[in-house]
Amino acid sequence: MNHTYKDNSRRIQKHCHRRQERKLAERRRYEISDLAYEDDLKVDEMISSSLPQISTNVEVSSSLERSIDPELSDLPHEPKTFDEDHYRGSRMIRNWRKKFLGERKSLEGHEWAIAEAAREVPMKILRSYFVRMNIESIQVIRFYITLCTSYVLLIFGNIGCICNCMAFTSKQLRQNSCGWYLLMSTVFDFSCIKFGLFTKLASEHYGSKLQHTNLVWCKIRIFLTWILPCFSTGYLILASIDRCLSTSKSQRIRSFSQIKIAHQMTCIPIILYSLISSHLLVYFNLRKSCSPTAGTYAFFLSLYSIVWTSLIPQISMFIFSLITYFNVRKSHQRLIHPIIQNRNRTDSQMIKITLVQVLYSFILLNIRTIYFSYSLLSTNIRKDNYRHAIESLILQISSFIFYFNFRRCINNIHTAEVKCVLFGVDTGSGVANLLDNTITWQSNGADD
Asked: Which among 150, 236, 253, 392 could disulfide-bond with 248, CB atoms 3.0 to 4.6 Å apart, if both were Cys?
């Protein structure tokens, strides 16, 4: 009798306990299902607050097999005593198994949304972390590139410009029209390096906010950093034209290659590029920073940079350099005997001066042109922060490559002339020797 009474009391207790578990589980299910009608923000807040262990300890492998921390993996499938946190943990584990081990059983209520959201939250955090880390790394690389490269350009650029000034102000080149154009180009190279790099360093590394707070300085800096390189390129074009004229077989055409005409032509690049680039003073304004007006003008500015500051000057120099080369080849037939023995040396020097310099500028300038072309073609493309960081890094690299064109450090052509000017060493292969030979061709050429 006592045993029967004890058995009945145990059955009643178990039945009450199971009934209590079912009621609690059903109440929890109703609470979760009610959350389905709330917005996504509240659901995310509920996940982050009520399931911290599930959202942080669950990882999904690429082979669709799950790996859970020991605290969760040791949980039994059916808890013997009801614990709400324990119940939720085991429930989530079964949902993960059904999802990634191929079981296609449907889940009731909002539990599947909980499992899906719990899977997405750590993945989103992980993706955003790596993107943020990559952006920060790109910004660090950009910082050190702008800092180190600026000082390298300032040091070697100043050395190259000073040596070129010494060479082109020597007695042999002082009264030569081609030497005058190259001297003016060197002067604006020096100005471009000094002004552009000093203001860039002050703005990006030494805390100067003047460019982004003062509208007048914003317009002046943008205008000068655009037109100073154009002035230098303009004088290179005039030098190419002068070489073409000086090697012509017509005495009338050769007469235009004179120092007086070169002095008169000095102001043409300054006036021309200042007028054509005057739109920079109008359409650059202060928004978040000193930047061009968005929309049509941004499109025009990219097109202007591609066509006017790159393609037209480079094509012009290349055409006149080719004409000069063919004129030199033809002039060999009219050289007197003492000059014939130096023909190969003179020819190679002319090729270097007329073609290598143009190709050097063509490569360095067109790298920036390629970037502007990309910017022009991707105007209507939506870009995230990571892509903006990449484009900013590429712009900085292309800008410093652009400045390398105006560095013009000593090369093989100018080394001999600098030795002659500084040490009195006559190597016979400098720029002066080349131009003296050119004058000899003029005096011995056939007149038309």
From this structure: 253
